[in-house]
Write a structure and sequence with these properties.
single chain; about 475 residues; alpha/beta; Rossmann fold; 6-stranded mixed sheet; 3-stranded antiparallel sheet; 14 helices; about 45% helix; binds guanosine-5'-triphosphate; binds magnesium ion
Length: about 475
């Protein structure tokens, strides 16, 4: 069903309170100009949300109020017809530099836009705020107030709420820098209630947002399946001529092998990032993210993936035979393991002297020029769990980076030394079994099994992604 009305909301308020940041986050557009300097936005700018080529809602960024008390005084002295007050205000002050911003910000409202009023709730209410609120009330347009706390100060919240209840149809706490997908949906749900006429159109917007989110999750799950498939089957083959320095060749190849895998992973992450429309500015990982570590670093393998015990259990679940289980805890390394899965020798990170030797080199044949040697694929299911954890943590960082945010303050860590910081560690047998089957199928020649197990993995990942987007947890943080 299509609706004629495209809901339109003007984001208004005092200078520097975070109006542009709110627009940026709501419209998922990181090209909106957000700066620490008051008076940054000087003209109205419309940011449409387009889904499937169709504009479904518009957010208008506006300059901050300039002389709200004088504007209000003019309105109090106005004696003409009520309905004409705002048009007359705009006509009377056209070109007047003292009322330039107030005129500009009121224009879209006079034309019919709804109002989203933004205040920084970490400071007290002032007289000038009351004047702004009163002007907005006089417009008679549907209006919602958003408390966007720039600092973690809650002492003034009640004061704000009290004033807001007198002037607005709805009040919401919404942090432009931290708002998640779920909070954006909630805000839209709330907007529905401020004006009945917008209900159906906003309902359409909400379903479109939800469907698009599912679509992005489905594509992300696809990207992760591709990533696993490619990385878990990657190998390099070379001819070892008679006079080649074997050691140098081995080291060179191993380096090349690891760099290629890292590149494949990096590209998968960038694809995910694009899906969530983080294009414009340089995305920074949270300070304590485990993703600052390289894929093949010791820390990565320590904090991500499963514990040795879980790995053995996972192998057992898919019917694989356990070869030798090495308790590396004695060597101070609690994250390595030897398992033999389906007859293949798996090697742990530590057991082979670190990540750089994770992929083994072996002779796979003879050719005229010499021995044919192959490096990879990596025969260690932990590699799959580490890749999965990294992809899921990356996803959680990306979706929780609100578009209005322009920096990344250091947040609290969620994991202490020795504790796993990934998601797979907490998975139940069923999920681990799905990964195990996918891993085993990749190593078989059974095309049907490969297709089936990939489908199961994708479906499971879609669930996992949706859960991450609805959860308030921060994933992948460690103490350095
Ligand atoms: N910590 C924090 N900072 C915020 C938040 N929202 C906005 N800011 C910062 O506050 C400053 C002003 O944000 P803008 O969105 O440009 O403010 P504005 O209301 O559009 O300002 P003008 O266009 O000048 O009226 C920027 O430095 C933002 O990064 C928030 O939720 N938390
Ligand atoms: Mg602005």
């Amino acid at each position: 069903m299509t609706h004629e009305i495209i809901p339109e909301f003007a984001i208004v308020g005092h200078p520097n309170e975070g109006k542009s940041a709110v627009v940026s986050t709501l419209a998922e557009d990181d090209s909106v100009r957000v700066t620490p300097y008051p008076g940054e936005t000087t003209v109205c700018q419309t940011f449409p949300v387009i889904i499937d080529g169709k504009e479904i809602i518009r957010f208008i960024d506006t300059p901050g109020f300039q002389s709200p008390r004088n504007t209000l005084a003019w309105m109090k002295n106005y004696r003409g017809a009520d309905a004409r007050m705002f048009p007359v205000y705009l006509e009377t002050h056209a070109g007047d530099p003292d009322f330039k911003d107030d005129s500009r910000l009121l224009e879209p409202i006079v034309k019919g836009a709804g109002i989203i009023y933004v205040v920084d709730g970490s400071r007290p209410v002032r007289k000038v705020d009351l004047a702004e609120m009163e002007i907005l009330r006089l417009t008679g347009r549907p209006r919602m107030a958003i408390i966007n706390c720039k600092e973690d100060e809650t002492a003034y919240l009640e004061q704000w709420k009290l004033e807001f209840r007198k002037h607005f149809n709805a009040v919401r706490v919404f942090n432009a820098n931290k708002a998640t997908y779920a909070e954006r949906i909630e805000l839209l749900e709330n907007l529905k209630s401020i004006d009945q006429d917008w209900g159906p159109a906003l309902e359409t917007v909400i379903s479109a947002f939800k469907e698009e989110w599912q679509q992005r999750n489905s594509l992300t799950a696809e990207i992760i399946c591709d990533l696993l498939e490619e990385c878990l089957s990657f190998s390099i083959t070379r001819i070892l001529a008679e006079r080649t320095d074997e050691k140098a060749l081995r080291e060179g190849l191993q380096k090349k092998y690891n760099r290629t895998i890292e590149k494949i992973e990096g590209m998968a992450h960038q694809k995910t990032r694009k899906l969530f429309k983080h294009n414009i500015f340089n995305y920074l990982l949270p300070t304590h993210s485990i993703l600052h570590e390289d894929l093949f670093s010791k820390k990565t393998w320590q904090f991500l993936g499963l514990t040795p015990r879980q790995l053995v259990a996972a192998a057992g679940m898919a019917g694989g035979a356990i070869g030798a289980v090495l308790d590396l805890a004695a060597a101070g390394l609690t994250f390595g393991i030897f398992t033999s899965i389906g007859g293949l020798l798996g090697a742990g990170w530590a057991a082979l002297g670190g990540g750089k030797h994770l992929a083994k080199m072996k002779v796979v044949g003879l050719s005229l020029g010499g021995q044919q040697i192959q490096i990879g694929p990596i025969q260690n299911i932990q590699f799959a769990f580490v890749l999965l954890d990294r992809a899921l943590i990356f996803y959680s960082h990306i979706i929780n980076w609100a578009h209005g945010r322009r920096d990344y303050p250091s947040g609290p860590s969620t994991s202490k030394g020795g504790v796993k910081a990934g998601l797979t560690f907490e998975w139940g047998d069923k999920k681990k079994g799905v990964c195990q089957s996918f891993y085993t199928a990749l190593r078989s020649d059974d095309g049907g099994q490969k297709t089936l197990s990939r489908k199961a993995l994708k479906e499971m990942l879609q669930d996992v992604l949706l859960n991450i987007s609805q959860s308030e947890r921060t994933y992948g943080m460690i103490h350095n």
